[in-house]
Design brief:
Chain lengths: ~400, ~400, ~400, ~400
């Protein structure tokens, strides 16, 4: 049997535990197999054209700054109801995170209780790679993918060390503090040709894009497009179609889970807000003068985050109108199926020999990775078309998951 | 100078007066030229590819059941502010509606004060044609288009008389009461090869589609997609892209203008609700079990209609979530620019030799005209693509508005 | 030990099962004792002044048109979560409804599967009384109260038979179909001096008020003020205080439980809407020209009903403003604690020798019972003051629950 | 004819110009006399009991940091429509502000273009008093009232200089920078026994309360309760009545007028947020763990501010529910009539010999002035009762406005 390993940065987080518990529940038929673009059982629009790894053949592992096993972690996040978690308790209890690579300055509101015992960048990267190698051997994996589901890192401007692979390598040697934990994980993944998905908010790092291209590794990111921004990129497309001019867009959202707490730290908040705010102008074709995004930590809600948007538009003859949108959603429930889709699509991309930034996966991200000088596509429906076109182009090659991999 | 005549059924209505006053204001530079897909001045996405009739060369005229001139009518509708209307008062006062073709049974809450003096269908159709001929001669028009902006007619099931042109002609001879005023106008338009746009809610009448095809006349309808349904067909596309399952969609909307009063009559309400309710399932690919649309007449608002939607969705692992949308809009402000776009695109279609239903104009309608057995496309972004494809296909032919028309 | 019997019409309904399961859960300390005005444990504002029957000393029983025991019924209503119900399963399973008095014409969307085997009014009333007598004897009850929690009955105009006790008695003899099941229950209660609470929407019946006064029985009703109307009578008081003029109030609400299904029937819907619509004008002191209330059955929500209100107000210098309120609530969760308060307060009223309509309980009702010619107080805060004043007046008498009763 | 002078700090602001223009429009019958508790013409609840100064007999004047006359200022604020302002243009143009007392450190986002030429506290206070004296003489005024409608001052902790009149006087001598402009105005008012209303957010200053008591001057404040907080203190009272436990209250509001711009400065924002946040706990009787208030400057709206609230409540058996409130209002339209009521009620209080803090006026304020150690009443309906009780108590004395004054 062919098998795919999925190594997760932030294994014990809300998105990760929800996804893994969800997969286990789907495998047992305890919840419906819905919400994914790549799931055959749900008559999915892509599955007929490409072979995706079945849920049955995925092996999960990963790192976390907390040592709790995934049953404990999932219970604490309060996303899936306790009686559902009880049904897959044994499987979740077996999953215990590896110690994480961690830097306090990138994670102000977080405590690193369970971190690797080495402090030098190169040593940490070695440890990351060793874990992946070990996992591959233990389970006889045909391929491994890495997904970063960790909390948002504090904002920093890109500097010279991020601009070329040479500079980056030198920075690693010198333990440059500007190389964040997320960058060390991605560097390790590229070295092993392990496709990488950055689901946490993060800027595109040119040095690491260069590394991915040179190594022949497909990468995708950043910042899963789940709640408010998802709606924004659909509604903005509607305003564009009807040529209703957006005068202002005022967005607030609040959540009470760990991600929310991390976002209370001004640095992380800036990273996130910048990621959320960039989407509008490129869809509309002009600069929206008053676009505000505010994120607040609000404890009573836990993972059940909520967004409220007020949009001021101007129509025919200059007449003003308004729209309000209130989205009562679950952060992790929206994110988990995207992660499964991304894992499968990155694996296919790898098989197809794709390398560097996978633009066709922009559909899943708030801030799609973008080479310098390029503007990302944010319009949800143009993103969808990009993915469908890519699938069509690669469908012709017709190689299926288990067969091809086995023969290689 | 080449000129386009636009004859409007419901000339004194809120949409019509807003559009005509808006055109006059734009011509004088008193309001911005925004909100139209076909307006060169707003960097429109279509204008570079096709030549559209300039606003300067349109001549408006039409029918109404009320005799008021368009300044009086516009003042009463309270859509554009009085000081704006004052600036174009003289032009609007010159526009006085012709008496309308009217049947009380299709317009329960409306009084026909200003109607044609003849009662037989054939005579009424003759009068409609005579008005158009007269207008064409008086202004030396190169082409005429007809737009139906009248209030919603009461619901009736299609019967045999509507199913073939022969039956319809016989029905006209017999003054069949199932042939509504709107059908008589469309019949007259087809006879004269005057492109027709049905902007009021109405079913597709196979007999009249057949007539349009045989006569070589392009037609488009029905029911302008303006407020709540516009948003619905954008958000449903978003739910489709993310495979969030729609469990229920509860829509209310209220307005206080004449259209709202007409919709208080159960028959008209049914026509409108049916038009609004059909859009969801074809976008999503499954039947939404609980889709409700309620329309209420609520006087304090006048033309400023408002919609509120509650949507229940099911995500990953079967977890329920909710969205609420509150759209505070102006019915006529949303509709007026669509009518201008439709006039221009129908004129181009006529020049290109198109006939029958113009599917590429589905973008503008809640219930696009559809041949028997076909399902219309409701997804806003697929509709947009259909229009862009059509423009691209016809752009090659490169004939522009005044020149071609002059030489014909 | 002194004991209070509570006999419930609609024992298996959502409100009743929620209340009884809630009492059992509170007795076991499994849920907090919150939400009641009369509960000592929650530092309540009334408990220090009067002695109320402790939850421990209440015995529940009652009638229902469905035969299911209360555990089955509660599970089906999906108000309290299954794991909470499991904790009190044994107690709930012991509670099985008596067959109900039922008339199909008052309950269009309901099936009467479990009804008394006699059809004559007088016989039915005898059976009701026999059940109460039997319960009293079996449990050695010190007092009994009756609460009507059945579904809304279809609307009917009051007629002569309802206007005096003599006419009503004659109507009973003649099996007059205008005497609804709810009236037969209340008649039986009055005969036995069993205080009666009408929590379902119903008009005040003068004949039965007369009977209550003559018999010395306190009664209170009608239609529990729980969700949208509760908010309305608070906000209207606010608009009154600030002299913001209400131009229109547009209310929709939807729910998916049995009560919602019953309200789909036009007759019941009318009863409910009339009950909801009457509250505004008396608070504001003028007639609101545009007050609309729409209720819809919307299945995805079950008991989790939702209300949306749009309010148009006019302020200083005639300037218009708007407010929107969206209440996501649980019908039975809001209603259950009011029922407990009403039971306790009616019992105290009985001990105090009160008879007829208990105006001080208006706080709990959408349509407080009102003698002919009187206008009820709807302002939530004036209603609160009425109750506080009554409590103060009766506090002086200082008789407590168990002691007094025991000695009687 | 008896006359009342009203001197306004912030004469050119949005609230002030709206109020004064509104008074002029009401005097001419061009807008209805609504929205005030004290206006006889609107069947007001207080007017029958006390005599209030008629609008006809009020003379307005005041200070502002901008030199524009009130017609220019009102036009710029865009609260009342231009055609209404045109009708009272002449009157408004005659009203030109006096130069203001100003300190940049209390008004970060504001420019003081039009300020008094003296810098020492004592000199500024002299100038304030001179203006009032001059106005009184010029118009033969019977009485003068001062209202502070200036923008929010930056937050500062109270220090020793504020705690006693002696310390305050010493601080004045030493030009202590902790004595803000608002305090200098109030000090001047007290010295002249000119009743003072602090409508801008500000803490209670014990030294000035002491001064008011000793001088025999009635004062009232602070921070007009207009939009979101008004609604909050009504809904919180509702939750209290129904014993629905508030778990969290998340409030955002945005506005685009000058007040909004001032509130962008962190110091002023803090003053305002503190004023808004204090109201909840005292109404509910417990501490709400998660109460957040966020204020943002959002340009597209101008004076049309908007509030959105999410409230998480817990009901019977611990079940959670939610409410959302969206208030689309006009800041100055809500504030203006309160100012008129306050002017009139303070004048009556003065006639009645009241001195110091006027608690009966709490109804109008977010943060009612409170002596040390006292908790203010925030419940809107208890505040109303306090006012009604006070009116009742003073009604007996029966002295009317023009008569008494004339005879004095």
């Amino acid at each position: 049997m062919a098998k795919l390993g999925v190594t997760i940065v932030g294994l014990g987080g809300a998105v990760s535990t929800t996804m893994i518990a969800g997969v286990e529940l789907m495998l047992r038929g305890l919840v419906p197999r819905i919400g994914m673009l790549t799931e055959e059982a749900d008559g999915n629009p892509l599955a007929g054209r490409l072979d995706f790894v079945p849920l049955e053949e995925i092996v999960f592992a990963g790192w976390d700054v907390k040592p709790a096993n995934l049953y404990q972690a999932a219970l604490e996040h309060r996303v899936l109801p306790p009686d559902q978690l009880a049904a897959v308790r044994e499987r979740l209890e077996c999953l215990v995170p590896w110690p994480a690579v961690f830097s306090q300055e990138f994670a102000v509101n977080l405590r690193g209780d369970h971190v690797v015992p080495v402090r030098r960048h190169r040593e940490q990267i070695e440890l990351i790679q060793a874990r992946i190698r070990e996992l591959r051997n233990r389970h006889g994996l045909d391929q491994v993918v890495m997904v970063n589901l960790a909390s948002t890192e504090a904002w920093q401007e890109l500097s010279d060390v991020h601009r070329s692979l040479d500079a980056f390598e030198a920075g690693l040697d010198a333990d440059d503090p500007a190389i964040s934990p997320a960058m060390r994980y991605l560097y390790a993944a590229n070295r092993m040709r392990v496709p990488y998905c950055g689901f946490a908010p993060a800027p595109t790092v040119p040095a690491l894009v260069q590394q991915a291209v040179e190594a022949g590794n497909p990468i995708a990111g950043a910042d899963g497009k789940t709640g408010q921004t998802l709606v924004k990129t659909a509604l903005a497309a509607m305003f564009r179609v009807r040529r209703l001019r957006v005068l202002g867009w005022y967005s607030v959202n609040f959540l009470g889970n760990n991600d929310g707490l991390v976002l209370e730290a001004p640095g992380a908040n800036k990273t996130k807000v910048l990621s959320k705010i960039s989407v509008l102008d490129s869809i509309l074709g002009y600069e929206v003068e008053n676009h505000q995004v505010h994120i607040h930590y609000y404890k009573p809600r836990g993972d059940a985050k909520e967004a409220w948007d007020n949009i001021d538009i101007q129509g025919f003859a200059g007449i003003p109108m308004q729209m309000k949108v209130n989205f009562l959603c679950q952060d992790s429930i929206l994110a988990a199926p995207l992660v499964i889709d991304l894992i499968r699509l990155l694996e296919v991309a790898w098989r197809c020999g794709e390398r560097g930034i996978q633009r066709q996966l922009s559909l899943f991200f708030k801030s799609p990775y973008t080479p310098c000088g390029e503007t990302p596509v944010h319009d949800l429906f143009r993103q969808e078309q990009m993915l469908l076109d890519w699938v069509e182009a690669h469908a012709a090659r017709a190689f299926g998951w288990p067969r091809t991999v086995r023969s290689s």
